[in-house]
Structures are given as C-alpha cells and as structure tokens.
Specification:
Chain lengths: ~350, ~325
C-alpha cells in the first residue's frame, strides 16, 4: 500500500483539504487517476473489440462509475477481498488485476483469468483478492459475509468489500447478508453503486426508501451516502468504514450515487431515460474530469502529466488486446476440467 | 495410522454417527465448523448436533438466523476463503430457499474461475417422508441437486456410512450435499471408533444375488433388503445395491450386477418421474449390460403427488416392503 500517509488531524496546515489529499501522497493520487483511466480505456477497448466481433456474449460496462471502484479499493491490500458484480470490470482493475489477462478472458483464451471459462460476467483475480464478478444480482452478498467470517475466525485483520448495485438491494440475499454481518459484527463493507437503474427500472420505481443507505438502519449499521463520482468522498467514507471494520465494530453500508453512461448491457436501447439526463452526467459530473480538475487545482499534476498518463494507459490497453489476440484458445478436450478439483 | 483406533466397533445410531464424525473433524482440523438453525443449545431439529456446542463452543457450532439463502452463501464464502463449514439445513425442503447459492455459486464457482478456487463446503439435508410433517417437510430432492455438475450428492443408508461418508465429504475439496433420511436417524448399527472414510462415488453391494438387481437409495436400501429376505424363502435370489452416491454415480457396480442378474429394478423414495431411477435405467440401457436384460426395467419411486399428512396416505406415497416384494416377484417370475 504505497503512500499511506499521516492523518490530517496531525497536519493542521492541510486541515481544509479534502480527505484524499490529507491522507495520501501525490504519487498515490496520480496512481488513482491512472487506474480510473485504465478502467475507462479498458472498457472502451472491450466495447470496440465486441463491436468488431472479437468478443462474443455480452458485457456490462461501468463507464462513468470509475470513482467508486477506485475510491473504494484505494486503501485495500491484496489480502483484503472483494466480491464484485456483473458490472465488475472496474472493481477488478481497481483491485489490481492485469488488463492483459482480463482482455484474454474476454477473448475466451487460456491466458485469461478464468482460462476462458468465465468471460466478462465472472471476471476474477483471486491473487489480488477479487473473488469474482457475479452473474446473479445479489449473489455476492452472502459470499462476502462468509469471507468476512473467515477473516474474523482466523483473526487475519483483513476486510471484505461487497460491491453490489441498486438492483440488488431488493433481493432477499441483501437483507439476509446485512443482518448476519451485523449480528456477528463482521469486517465487511457493503458498497452499493447506485447508478439509478436496475436494467431499465429506476430506483424510484423499484425501491420503497429514498436512499438505499437508509436500509442500514434496519440492520443497526451506519449507512453512508456519498457522491459516488467524487473519488475523495468515496475514499473518505471507505476509510472510516474500514477503520470500523478492522477494529471489530462491524459492517457499514456505503451508497455511492453514480451513473452509467452506457446501457445495461449490449441489448439496451436506452428507452427508459433521456439523452439529456445522460448528457448532463457526462458533461457535468464525469468522475475522471472532476478528479483531474481537482488534482490540477491542488498542484498534484499538470496537463502534461495527465496527457502522459492517458498515453501510457493507451499503450497498456493496446498491448493487452494484442496479448489477448495472440493467446491460445482452450482445448475442447479440457471442457470438463475445473468442474471438480483434480485429486491425485 | 488410524488402523489401531479403527479396530473397536460398537453400536451407534445414525444421528450419533454423524455427530461423532463432526466432532472428530473439528478435533482434527480447526478450519471445520458447523452452521445452521438451532444447532447450538437446542441441539438441532433432529438432535444431530446435540451437545456439540458445549464441547466446541458457539463459535464453532454457530446458530444462524432463519436465513437459508444467506446462511448457505455465508458457508460458501467461508469455504472459498479457506474454512471448512458444515451447513445444516433443518429440513431438506428448505434447500429450495437456498438454491441460488447452491446451484449458481457453490457448484459453479471453481469452473467459472477456471480452477482458481475450490469450494469445500458440506451441506446436510434431513430428508424424506414418514414423520407426518406433510408436504413441505418431507420431500426427497436429491435428484434436483444431482443434476448439477460441480456438486457431489450422497445418501448414506447406514450409521457406518453416515460417519465415513461425512468425514470423506468434509475432507473433499468440492461442495458435497448429504441427504440424510429422517427415519434413519434412530437406526442403530456398527460404527468403528475413530477416524475413517467411506469413498464418495462408490456403491456398495449389500446383498449378493443372481436373479434380480435392485438399486436402492437411503432408507429404501433397508426396505429392499427386507423384501429380498422375504423372497429368498421363495427361492428368488436378489442382489441389493446401495447406490450411496447420486453424483458422481458408480455406474460400473450397477452394470456388473445387471450383467450377472439380467434384471434391474430401481427403488427410491423421491418422485418417480425424472428421478434417480430414470438415470440408472437409462445408464443401463446405454451400457453393455443392455444385451443381458431378460425383462423390462422396473422403477418403484414416489407417487406423483406432494407428501400428504394422513399416515395411510403418506405411506402409500412412497415404496413399501410389500410393494417391493410383489414387484420383484412379478419381475423375476415373468408375471409382468
């Protein structure tokens, strides 16, 4: 965890700065910006590859939601674990995965993280603590609680982050998982990325409470609402939740209010929302643009530095796609491999 | 190395045998723990966990809220991250509430992640009819789970196997679903002391015979053995195979038996249609044993109805000894 710096309380001169700038050094912050670009360009690259027929199936893009993935994962170690969602590319990258192996997975290749068995919807990198995206809405919630139970029982000191969308908060699994995490005071942070729509159905039409974080009250845990497109706000809420979890005080529910620019999946005709709504989020609340502006204002980076990051990320993406293209396809003879654990 | 302590054998009930297996596993491996509804001070709905909470404490014999879906998922998450949970369902019927975690997560996680993880979770399901608990507490759903690649599904029929198969399940790296017939819990039988395992995926020939192969599961093994005993007085010699594992099924033991006896009958408590009997029958029809068949294959399974409350109706829902005797006699004497 590079760059974890002193708490702002000990640095009176920085007291008025947003949390992120009090808590992390400049290199870490530039790294966070780079990760946001990496997520954005990865998804644009995946989308383009899909259009060109290089990737089949479907995918759920999180373009516009990068601040929540990066802000949440910024303070985590490889030993801290996450469960992710069908819209999970950003989580995977934010947690530290290599985009080459992610592209390879999307291309169905043996060099992919899931050896071509999982694809976009099950992307995972266990080595960096990502237990996997999930094709079932709410499917990862109880699993995250189980991982947190392991952390508590083994006294590992690790925390578990459970990403889910607004749609999942109406699944029974959400309620069962939050309740168990609370009664057992488990080190898990529930992160709801509320992008306003469960497929086409708006949160207003689907959810009885105004904020999903309001539901935390039912499970006697803090419910925190943050501007999900503002990295610093996300990171601050996450930092407090992590401290609480590591101290054994139990779970927190963080609701990141955000927005997805693309449709739900590749079949979406965007009939349930207006162009104006999408435009407004893209032009006025883009998480990368806002973060870049903030970093420049605070002298963390200049325009040349930003351009250098973009170019470097573009190179990494191009190399990743090339790696995926050149990687071998799985052998059909191995179709049944990995159904069960191979035993001697 | 366990051979020395294995030599002592005494009578235990099926429930006691399961409890002993869990205690041995928890003593041997600190990663093993139990989860379930009312398994702590209450001792479990069928007193299978009994007083284990006093011995191992509430951290390792964890009462869960009434949350089958969530509880099963917590067990899956704990298993993926290095523990060895044993999750007890109060009734197998409640598997329906947890199907998502069992079928979409536990069974598929290893495959979806290209072998990056294993899911060493054990789930125990008290199953079957005969207790007057009616339609939602009496089902036999093992074929449902047996249909899912990634799961292993077992049905121990004796106290000996209940202990040995459970210990094998706990040590297995993959998710194992155990269906325990509730009427077997009080049945006594010889159980070796100490640690031993019974291999998953191996059927057991409980009785050798030359006229007919009966493939039975769980409590039906005992009914089939009773029927075989009755018919031996009539000169009909029946081989009874205890399938023990639904998935992966021990095909060879059944094929070898049918090649010898030339007749096959499947006896199982679950609803007859699309069940284990269909799988065993089709497997034989596809195998080299087909040419040896002298008569049509017969299936005796549960009626096409929910389990009713009235005791006479309930009994009529699932195969009984008299019915097995008659069907077997008809099959061997050519009356069918």
């Amino acid at each position: 965890m590079a760059g974890k710096a002193k708490n702002g309380a000990e640095k009176p001169n920085g007291a008025n700065l947003p949390f992120l700038y009090r808590h992390y050094d400049h290199e870490t912050l530039r790294g966070a910006l780079r990760k946001m670009h990496l997520i954005r360009q990865f998804e644009e690259g995946a989308e383009e590859s899909y259009m060109r027929g290089l990737i089949h199936g479907t995918m759920h893009l999180s373009i516009g939601q990068e601040a929540s993935a990066v802000g949440i994962c910024l303070g985590l170690t490889d030993e801290d674990q996450i469960t992710s969602t069908h819209r999970g590319h950003g989580h995977c990258i934010a947690k530290g995965a290599d985009v080459s192996r992610m592209f390879a997975e999307f291309f169905g290749k043996t060099t992919g993280y899931c050896r071509g068995r999982g694809g976009s919807m099950h992307i995972a990198d266990v080595s960096t603590g990502n237990l996997g995206a999930n094709g079932i809405v709410g499917g990862g919630l109880p699993i995250a609680v189980g991982a947190a139970l392991t952390a508590k029982k083994t006294k590992s000191g690790n925390v578990v982050v459970c990403f889910f969308g607004d749609g999942a908060n109406n699944e029974g699994a959400f309620h069962e998982a939050l309740n168990m995490a609370a009664i057992w005071k488990l080190p898990v942070i529930f992160v709801c990325e509320n992008n306003g729509y469960g497929m086409s159905t708006s949160v207003e039409r689907a959810t009885a409470v105004k904020n999903i974080a309001d539901r935390a009250a039912a499970y006697a845990m803090p419910g925190v609402i943050v501007e999900g497109n503002v990295v610093s706000d996300v990171a601050q809420a996450m930092h407090e939740a992590t401290e609480r979890a590591r101290k054994g005080e139990g779970p927190t529910l963080i609701e990141c209010k955000t927005y997805r620019y693309r449709g739900h999946s590749k079949s979406d005709r965007n009939r349930y929302r207006t162009k104006e709504e999408i435009e407004e989020w893209m032009t006025e609340r883009d998480p990368i643009e806002m973060f870049e502006a903030e970093l420049q204002e605070l002298g963390v980076i200049d325009m040349a530095g930003i351009e250098a990051i973009r170019a470097d990320v573009a190179r990494e993406i191009a190399e990743g796609i090339e790696f995926a293209k050149e990687s071998p396809m799985p052998d059909v003879a191995n179709l049944e491999k990995y159904v069960y654990t191979e035993q001697a | 190395m366990d051979a020395i302590i294995e030599t002592a054998t005494r009578e235990l009930s099926y429930a006691q045998a399961i409890q002993e297996a869990m205690a041995i596993a928890m003593e041997r491996d600190e990663r093993v723990f139990l989860m379930g509804e009312d398994i702590g001070v209450y001792g479990g709905a069928f007193q299978v966990t009994g007083d284990l909470v006093e011995r191992f404490g509430p951290e390792r014999v964890m009462d869960t809220p009434i949350s089958e879906l969530g509880g099963a998922g917590v067990a899956v998450g704990a298993a993926v991250t290095g523990l060895r949970p044993i999750f007890e369902f109060q009734f197998s019927d409640f598997a329906t509430l947890a199907m998502e975690q069992i079928v979409n997560q536990a069974a598929k996680m290893r495959y979806m992640l290209g072998g990056a993880v294993s899911v060493p979770v054990v789930m125990r399901f008290p199953a079957g009819s005969g207790t007057g608990a009616a339609a939602q507490h009496s089902q036999s759903l093992e074929a449902w789970l047996g249909h899912v690649p990634g799961l292993k599904v077992i049905q121990p029929a004796t106290p000996h196997d209940a202990k040995g198969l459970l210990l094998a399940a706990i040590e297995d790296p993959d998710p194992v679903m155990i269906f325990e017939h509730k009427l077997l819990y009080k049945m006594k039988g010889p159980v070796p002391e100490g640690h031993y395992t019974v291999p998953i995926g191996k059927a057991d020939v409980r009785r050798e015979g030359r006229d007919l192969t009966i493939v039975a599961t769980s409590i039906m093994v005992h009914k089939a053995l009773e029927a075989a005993e009755t018919l031996s007085g009539e000169g009909i010699d029946i081989e009874v195979i205890d399938l023990r594992t639904v998935r992966p099924m021990d095909r060879q033991t059944v094929i070898d038996s049918v090649r010898k006896t030339s007749r096959l009958m499947c006896v199982y408590e679950a609803v007859k249609t699309l069940g284990i009997g269909a799988e065993v029958s089709a497997m034989i029809a596809e195998s080299e044993a087909f040419d040896y068949l002298d008569a049509p294959i017969v299936r005796l399974g549960g009626a096409e109805t929910p389990i009713p409350y009235n005791p006479e109706l309930e009994k009529a829902t699932v195969p009984q000894v008299d019915g097995i005797v008659q069907a077997a006699r008809d099959l061997v004497t050519g009356a069918r």
